[in-house]
Amino acid sequence: MTTVRMATDADRDAVVALWQSCDLTRPWNDPGADFDRALGHDASTILLAEAARAIVGTVMVGFDGHRGWVYYLGVRPDRRGGGIARRLLDGGCDWLAARGCPKVELMVRDGNPAAGLYERLDWEYQPVRVFARWLGQKG
Ligand SMILES: CC(C)(COP(=O)(O)OP(=O)(O)OC[C@H]1O[C@@H](n2cnc3c(N)ncnc32)[C@H](O)[C@@H]1OP(=O)(O)O)[C@@H](O)C(=O)NCCC(=O)NCCS
């Protein structure tokens, strides 16, 4: 049976390992620091899918006061195709809605086939370009 729960500090290493196995990490992001920031803030969290006491999926969500955002959606390669991402996204949306968030958005890197998942789950494509600026140190 797969359950969904909130991450705790004790999950850090297993979560980072899952992100790496899902190719969700990038050289300019420190995944451990990303985990710590998400759990160290009351406007963000990480939800985990767990089966037989092993973490098989994650999603990070945060509410910036205007929109909710989704990051680090990943399911362990051997557990894909079983609806885990759908459950994690639903759980993340519930978490955001409970905090008064009216709309949730996410970014998909060009070329990532995961875009098909969001279309399948009726997320609406937004015709926007994303610009970014580092504030101080990268990471
Ligand atoms: C993308 C990912 C999270 C999907 O996880 P998953 O648990 O296999 O997804 P689900 O089983 O919940 O899929 C839900 C629905 O979307 C469909 N779907 C899943 N991935 C899809 C894809 N790449 N393209 C089209 N449809 C997809 C499923 O068939 C399912 O449809 P159904 O309910 O009609 O059967 C997983 O493949 C993954 O971890 N990929 C690597 C990390 C990544 O790219 N994350 C997203 C970053 S933006």
Please tell me about this protein's structure.
The chain is globular, with a radius of gyration of 15 Å. Strands 1-2-3-4-5 form a five-stranded mixed sheet, sandwiched between helices. Helix 1 (12-21) packs across helix 2. It is 28% helix and 24% strand. The chain is built from four helices and five strands, in the order βααβββαβα. Strand 2 (44-51) and strand 3 form a beta hairpin. The chain has a single domain (2-120), classed as 3-Layer(aba) Sandwich (Aminopeptidase). With 139 residues, it is an alpha+beta fold. The site of coenzyme A (COA) has 20 residues, from strand 4, helix 3 and helix 4.
Characteristic key phrases:
5 strands; Aminopeptidase; binds coenzyme A; globular; 28% helix; 139 residues; 24% strand
